[in-house]
Amino acid sequence: MSTTMQPSELESQLAALQDEAQEAIAQIDTLDALEQLRIKYLGKKGSLSQVLGSMGRLGAEDRPRIGSLANEVKEALQTSLENKRIALQAAAIEAKLAAETIDVTMPGVFRSQGRAHPLTSTVDRMIDIFVGLGYTVATGPEMETDYYNFEALNFQPDHPARDMQDTLFLPDGNLLRTHTSSVQIRYMEENDPPIRIVIPGRCYRRDTVDATHSAVFHQLEILAVDEGLTFSDLRGTLKVFLEAMFGDIEVRFRPSYFPFTEPSAEVDVRWKGRWLEVMGCGMVDPNVLKSVGYDPEVYTGFAAGLGVERIAMVLHQIDDIRRLYTSDLRFLRQF
Ligand code: DAH
Q1: Is residue 283 within 6 Å of ligand 1 at its C-beta?
Q2: pTM (2 decimals)?
């Protein structure tokens, strides 16, 4: 057994340890360093343990007092460590909040919003009106055969009406459809009456491009076939459409001719002081009904072909059809 030790020696060691530790805790500024300090002073092999290691060398009568003194030092240091930990954590949160402060007065990042092209929004609106009247949407190919584009629509091989449409023929004898009327035939071949369809689509003609003509343009075809349909039904339907589309606008029906309708008419609207043709229409010719196997004694039908560009122009006061194809953002952003 080693020599006995004076309690005063341990007392002063404990006091020195406490002073040194408190001083060190006060200096610390990170949680990691604080943990290092805790291990250094209060850990299993820390300074306090080492001091207590020499307790055995005290006289028995001194041990309880020095033991409780050591406990006080330990508790005091634990309290200081804990207070410091709380203070450092609070400071860390403060710093994080300060760094993340949002300046609500800062200008935002501008993201321009996309929108539908005026032709798309126009045809969507047109379709919506007819869907509201009970019509459904049908489509067909842009490359067509002579049969669907002309023959089944009652254009005779040498019919002068074929000249009405400057057709773009393909090398294989097919053609680019000149109107969406071709889809009438395709649809009727596959379906029985009653029929109520709208057919949106792109059409092609060898037209000279000017302010109101384009070689590529869009139509919306209307077809209704049922028992007992009359020209009044056609007029009523188109009237509802035109009012829903344009509101209060001057409209006139003009007698016309199409091989696939009898009687036929064209519809003009008053636009910029003159009449602008926006559609052709008529009662489906009995020959057309026969070509798809419908009995014209039982069924009648009406049809119309609406020019989407023309209607978009009237709707949006667009003075030149070419603006609809040039993708000028200054123009398109207005819609
Ligand atoms: N297909 C004709 C054209 O492109 C437009 C047309 C006229 C369509 C009368 C029809 C119709 O359905 O009944 O000029």
Answers
A1: no
A2: 0.69
